[in-house]
Design a protein that fits this description.
Rossmann fold; 14 helices; 12 strands; 43% helix; 17% strand
């Protein structure tokens, strides 16, 4: 029965006020325990991160990017937030992904995974700062006006790996001296493909080796390419540096093993996963550096004035177990100059 006298009414009101204070205290405590709620998260500076590669393939490199950010004092969930978008090797998706991220008005847009990602980002915005990691020449592709002073909204890391094709031919030929025919696997959709072919052809001609150029831009085209290599008695393979190929790394390594074909790649991740050898700059360190550059931009430094960085050291990595499975003996002089030998 409801209270009817004044004393009972006052007791009821006091009880309600007490419960109200307890509820407010509870809500206040919850807010204090979770200072970065949904609304607070939305107020943090946003970094858009897009890549032509896959999320799984990029895990160690994304960790390098986050380490570079942390070196500048930026931690996701604390003072920044990141939105990731992955093309999984399907370059045609990149313009849509770039437009989606630009629509979120990020403080910076990171375009990883090579030229297709960087060019899609550049087409989507001329004002939002872009930080790229590419294998070719950013001036030649129109991303920057120069290396020392980009003079555009884009800067980042350039591997210049297309010019390393000749060096890779020399290395694989040294390991497989009887390979009269060397194959080069390229992705025709990459802007630097012609430069890479020219570099490898020059190296092959110098060594008096026949060069067979094969093109693949989809997973279904990989098997026929390797079948043709067997038919043409290819003795060694050079794989172009390409985000699509990186997304198919395990498949490429398996096909090379299936056809007993010695192959050289551009980054350490291939021999680390069972491939024969690689020669190129450290991709992990490059991602750390683009994290550092992104942090500088968040602090107010304009991308127009941040020089495009280039690697100064290159690493030769050899998987000795893969060499033994291919019945190859790694020359002592090659072992001596190798930066890492994976047992």
């Amino acid at each position: 029965m409801l209270p009817t006298n004044l004393h009972a009414e006052r007791q009821c009101m006091q009880f309600i006020q007490l419960k109200r204070r307890e509820l407010l205290a509870l809500l206040s405590g919850a807010a204090a325990a979770c200072p970065f709620g949904v609304h607070a998260q939305q107020l943090l500076p946003l970094i858009g991160f897009m890549s032509g590669r896959s999320e799984k393939d990029s895990e160690p490199h994304t960790a390098g990017f986050l380490r570079g950010l942390s070196e500048g004092g930026y931690i996701p969930g604390q003072n920044i937030r990141i939105e990731y978008r992955w093309a999984d090797g399907h370059y045609e998706r990149l313009p849509e992904l770039a437009a989606e991220l630009v629509g979120m008005r990020p403080a910076a847009l990171v375009a990883a995974g090579g030229e297709p990602s960087a060019l899609a980002a550049k087409s989507a915005t001329s004002t939002i700062p872009i930080v790229f990691v590419i294998g070719g020449d950013p001036v030649k592709t129109g991303l920057t006006a120069s290396l020392n002073r980009p003079n555009t909204n884009a800067t980042g890391i350039s591997f210049v790996t297309a010019q390393l094709g000749g060096k890779r031919v020399n290395l694989i030929a040294e390991l497989v001296p009887n390979a009269a025919t060397v194959a080069l696997l390229v992705n025709p959709n990459m802007s630097e493909t012609d430069t890479h072919v020219e570099s490898v052809r020059t190296g092959a001609d110098t060594l008096h080796r026949r060069l067979l150029v094969l093109r693949a831009s989809t997973r279904t085209e990989l098997q026929p390419s390797f079948d043709l290599m067997s038919k043409e008695a290819v003795g060694a393979l050079v794989v172009q540096n390409d985000p699509f190929f990186d997304s198919q790394r395990d498949r490429l390594i398996a096909l090379a093993a299936q056809h007993a074909l010695p192959a050289i790649y551009h980054i350490r991740e291939y021999p680390a996963a069972g491939g024969l050898m690689s020669y190129g700059a450290s991709l992990l360190d490059a991602y750390r550096q683009i994290g550092t550059i992104t942090g500088r931009i968040l602090k107010g430094e304009p991308p127009q004035e941040i020089p495009v960085l280039q690697p100064t050291q290159f690493e030769l990595v050899i998987n000795s177990k893969a060499a033994r499975l291919l019945h190859l003996t790694v020359p002592p002089q090659m072992l001596a100059i190798a930066d890492e030998v994976i047992e």
